[in-house]
Design brief:
Blueprint (H helix, E strand, L loop, with lengths): L13 H10 L4 H8 L3 H11 L2 E4 L2 H13 L9 E4 L37 E4 L6 H8 L7 E9 L2 H9 L7 E9 L2 H4 L24 E5 L2 E2 L2 E2 L2 H9 L7 E5 L11 H11 L5 E4 L8 H5 L9 E5 L5 H8 L7 E7 L13 H8 L13 H7 L8 E6 L10 H17 L9 E6 L5 E2 L30
Parallel strand pairs: 1-2, 2-3, 3-4, 4-5, 5-6, 6-9, 9-10, 10-11, 11-12, 12-13, 13-14
Antiparallel strand pairs: 7-8, 14-15
Helix pairs in contact: 1-3, 2-3, 12-14
Amino acid sequence: MSTDASHPWSRYPPEIKLQITLHNRGDIHTLCAMCLVSKEMRAIAIEQVFRVVSFTYAKDLEFWVDILRHTPTLSAVVRRVRFLPHEIAWFGVPPQAPERDTDETIVEAIPMIPPMPNVVAIDWALSDIRIQNARALLQLCPNATELNFLTTAIDGLPLFTHLLAEFGSRLLSLSLDKVMMLDMDMNDQWEEPGLDDLPRETVNFDLSGVQRLSLVSAELDGTTAIEYIEHLFEMSSPRTLKELHLRSDPDATAIPCSLNVVASLLTQHAPSLVNLTIDPSFADTLTELKNELPLFPLLKTLTVWLETGLSAELFINRLNAPNLSWLFIRLDLWRGDWESGNETNLAGSIDASLPWGRLFPSIPFTRTALRARFPTLGEQSIVFQICAGRDADLHYSFLARDDARLQFVTGLMAAGSGDLAGMRVEWLDPETGYGVIEYDPITGRAPWPRPPERSDRGSLSGEESG
C-alpha cells in the first residue's frame, strides 16, 4: 500500500473520489482492490464494500466478529443487512463448492456480535429459526426502520408478530415478498425438533408509522395463506400510508393478497397515497373494485405492470387522480425467448408480454389521450421501464439495448401508439428492487460483474458484447 502523498489519488478533489467510488459500488472485486491502493482510498472504498453485508452461515457471523475485532468502526458503516438461506453465499456470490455443512446455517447458532447502529434496512429470508435467534439477529440493528421478508415461510402468525414487535414503533417500510404463513396448529408441527420454542400467542406490534408497504404474492409453492395479511392489519395497520406496491408473483398467477385487503388498502389510504405501484393482471376478480375506485387526491406517481389482458387498461381508465404527474409503464422480460438463450428474438419476448394489435382496445393509448385523461402529466412524464435478468446480453452492450429499444418502439407503432415512441425507456434491475440501471457511458455495461457462464444459457453464455 503506497503512501497517500505519493499516490495520484491524493490529487483528486473529494467529490471526484466519491463519484469514482460510487461508480464501482456494485463491483465488490474492484472495491476490494481499491482498498489495497492507499489508506485514503481504503477509507472511502471500504464504506461501499461493507455498506451491505449478508449472513448465511454461523461462520459468516464469526468472520464478521473477527473483522470488527481488527476494525471496530466498520459496525457503523453498514446500512443494510441481509439474512439469507444457505443457497446464497457471502456478498450474494453463489458458492463454488459445498465446503460448508448446511447444518451450520445461522438458524442454529448466534455468536455475540456488536450492534450495527446505522443499519436502515433488513432483508429477511430465513425459515425454521428459533425465536431467540431471530430476536438476536434483529437486535443487531437497533435503529433499522425497513424490514423486507423475501421468499420465506414463517412458522405461524405468533412468530411473525414477535418479529415485528422487535421494531417497536419505528418501522417505516414493510415488504412481504412471497411470504407463506404456516398454520402450525393445522399441520401439528409444534412438537417438531427445533420448533418446540415457537410462540403460540401473538403479541402486540405497531405498524402505525409504516409509510411504505409492498405485498408481492402471498402464495408459495401452490400453498395459499393470504388470510394472515388480513389478520395482520386487523391487529395493527398503517396510519398514513404514502407508498403502496401490489403485485402478483411474476412466475405465477397468485394475487398479491386477498381482494378484501386490496380493497381495504386502496380505500383506506387513497387520501394519503403519493406513490402507487400495481399489477392489475390478477384483476379478473377486481371488476367491482375498479368500478368503485376512490379519489386519490395526492397521488403523484402511478406505476402499472403491463401484462396481457385488459386489466391495466381498465385500471388506468377508471383511476381518479387529478394531480398525477408521472406514469411509469413496466414490462417484465423475465419470461420469454431470451431465457432459452435466443437473444436475437427479443421481439418474441416482448410479443409474449404485451397484447400487440392494440395495447388498450377500449381507449386510445397515446400520449395525447393519456394527457387528456391526466392533465397534470408532463410532456416527458410517461416512461416505459423494461426489466430483464442480469444474465441477459442487453445489459452488456449498447447494440443489444438499441436493438431491443427499436423492437419495442416498432411494436408501439404497430399497436397504434406511435406518438409514445419518443418516450423515455429505462432498464430496471429486478435484483435491486427494480432500480434504474446506470450503465457505464464508455463500455455500455451494467455496474455488476457478468454472471458466470451456464451450459444451459445458449447464446447468453458466449463472448461478452463490447
